[in-house]
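Handout, section B. The chain below has 130 residues.
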Amino acid sequence: MPTYKKSYKDLSFDFTANPQTGDVATVKDAVSVKRGIKNILLTAGFERLFQPEIGSGIKNILFEPMTPLTEQRLSDACADAIEAWEKRASVINIAVISEEEYNRYRVAIKFNINNSLETEQVDVFLNRER
C-alpha cells in the first residue's frame, strides 16, 4: 500500500496573485508552518476577534528586566503556545537571546514538521515596544 505525505498549505500574507491562475498565492509545507509559529508568538490574547484564546501571552513578559530568568520564561511561554496552537510542529529546542543594544529578544526555534524528518528553524524577533 503506498504511503502519502501530507502537505500543508496556507495563503500568502502579501496576497499576491498566482501568475497562472490569478488566485491568491499560497505557501507550502515548511514556509507555512514557520509563518504559523511566528503568527502565534506575535499574537496577544484577545487580539483575534472570534478566537480570543489564541495567542502566546509573551507581551507581558517582554518588559521584565533582561535576565536569564526572563529568557527562560519567554522560552517556556513560546513552547506552551506552539504546543497548544501549532499542531503541525514538534519543538526540539528554543533559544532566547537578549539583544540589549536593540532592545529586543531573538527567539530561535528548532522544530520538526510532523510529517517530515528534517529539522527546520525559524527566528522571531520580539521587540520591547508598545
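Note. The domain at 9-127 is CATH 3.10.450.40 (Nuclear Transport Factor 2; Chain: A,). Compare this with the example in section A.
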